[in-house]
Amino acid sequence: MAGDGHTRLVGWLKVALPLLALALLSTLFLVARTIDPGQAIPYTEAELADRLREPRMTAPAYAGVTADGAKITFTADEARPAGPTGASALKAQATLATPDGARTTVTAGAARMLGDTGHLVLESGVLLATSAGYEMRTDAISLALDRTGAESTGPVDGFGPPGRISAGRMVLSENLDAPGEYLLVFNERVRLIYEPGKP
User: Which positions, given as ranges, span the membrane (predicted)?
Assistant: First the structure.
């Protein structure tokens, strides 16, 4: 007799529990807050007209890997098309992580993507910082997107583990004599003020 009661209880629960779950789901959908389509777009009509007149992308992000295995990421506050294959951006940051574990970050007030050359030019208050302790300022840096290569377009000034450094040009590239190693090279009127014990 006890077995019959257990069987009836199980059979009743097989019907009741799915119905209870269905009732709970129905209640969730009925009670859910409705969305006002008018509040979905946080822009005024003037802002929408401006975006239609001058298309732009907010908070763009790019990520890729160079032929030698370095990872490149690029972010900006805003980007706009410039020419048939290029783009311009404001408040940009590019990060280069090379296979040897080193990391280089370049921040700038503006950037230009040169689609025909495969380069990203960061300009307007450029700061380059490396995981090796170098911090250099310059007017502009050209960053290759297909291989590891960054080059200042003019003089640089900053500091590193040896001390204060200034030079007419700075190049970051893979060491051709030792693939997998990367060099930060200063040339053209290089000046070093040795400051032991200072970054």
Answer: 12-32
CATH of residue 98? 2.60.450.10
- Domain limits for position 165: 58-194
**Contact 54/80 with Cβ under 8 angstroms?**
yes
Average pLDDT, the chain: 82
pLDDT tens-digit series, residues 37-51 = 555 556 666 665 665
Q: Yes or no: say if 105 and 128 are a contact pair by the CB < 8 Å rule.
A: yes
In a domain, 63, yes or no: yes
Q: Domain for residue 169, yes or no? A: yes
Domain count, the chain: 1
